[in-house]
Amino acid sequence: MTNHVMSRRLAAEFLGTCWLVLGGCGSAVLAATFPNTGIGFQGVALAFGLTVLTAAYAVGSISGGHFNPAVSLGLWMGKRFPAADLLPYIVAQVLGAVVAAAVLYVIASGRAGFDVSAGFAANGYAEHSPGGYSLVAALVTEVVLTFFFLIIILGSTDPRAPQGFAPIAIGLALTLIHLISIPVTNTSVNPARSTGPALFVGGWALGQLWLFWVAPIVGALLAGLAYRLLAVEPERAAMPEPAPAPYRAASD
């Protein structure tokens, strides 16, 4: 792969992750509790789903539309993504999330009374969980929901699945995941999404950030392994597996 092609792919991952964090976290920080007309949990969940859906259609044909280190690692485990591209993708994703969080911080701080320590859409557990859920509850939630998120991604992008609809399935899945888990952890399933806001909140958010890297990655790797076992056709089970191909969120 030429440097030019990789640069385009990394730029797409940067922009897509930036859009995800700006749209999803932005809806939580700016609009979720706006007086009288706040969008609430349902609106924030929909916003996260819409960011993935729209970004996948916009730049998924360039980079595959991961926008999430856990997704890249899960696709690698599922033999859909080369190991050599993992680190550049993850760096681009984290940078995109940090830049989006910085833009959101500039916007949010333009309102009198803004207090970044109040949360800034950061993920947390125990006293920093929106519903006061424990570390164990948060760990199980993030592992299990990331597992199913990757199963849906791997299944909807399988060559045997209907082509061109993967971003819709993935966006709806992320919406549902947020509807389930916002009260538990404020929903991560994406280490990059968690890192951007945590850097601006500091303190407790950085102290708890480890969970929102470990749990999504564990869930994603388990899903990649599970889908490899689930999707192998019986008559082809003994044949050598094909060389890994880059994941594409939209149809080829």
Name its key features.
65% helix, 9 helices, single chain, Glycerol uptake facilitator protein
What does this structure look like?
The chain is an all-alpha fold. It has a single domain (3-110, 117-232), classed as Glycerol uptake facilitator protein (Up-down Bundle), CATH 1.20.1080. It has helices spanning 3-31, 40-63, 69-77, 86-108, 135-156, 166-185, 191-201, 203-208, 211-231.
In a few lines, what is going on in this structure?
This protein is mostly helical. Helices cover 65% and strands 0% of the residues. It has nine helices and no strands.
The total of helices stands at 9
Radius of gyration: 18 Å
CATH topology: Glycerol uptake facilitator protein
Q: What would CATH call the class?
A: Mainly Alpha
Strand content: under 5%
Along the chain, the helix and strand elements come as HHHHHHHHH
**Assigned CATH superfamily:** Glycerol uptake facilitator protein
Oligomer: single chain
How many domains? 1
- Mean pLDDT across all residues, rounded? 91
Structural class: mainly alpha
- Overall geometric form: globular
**Distance between the ends:** 18 Å
Secondary structure: helix percent? 55-70%
**Annotated CATH architecture:** Up-down Bundle
Low-confidence stretches: 241-252
The biggest beta sheet is recorded as:
none
Number of strands: 0
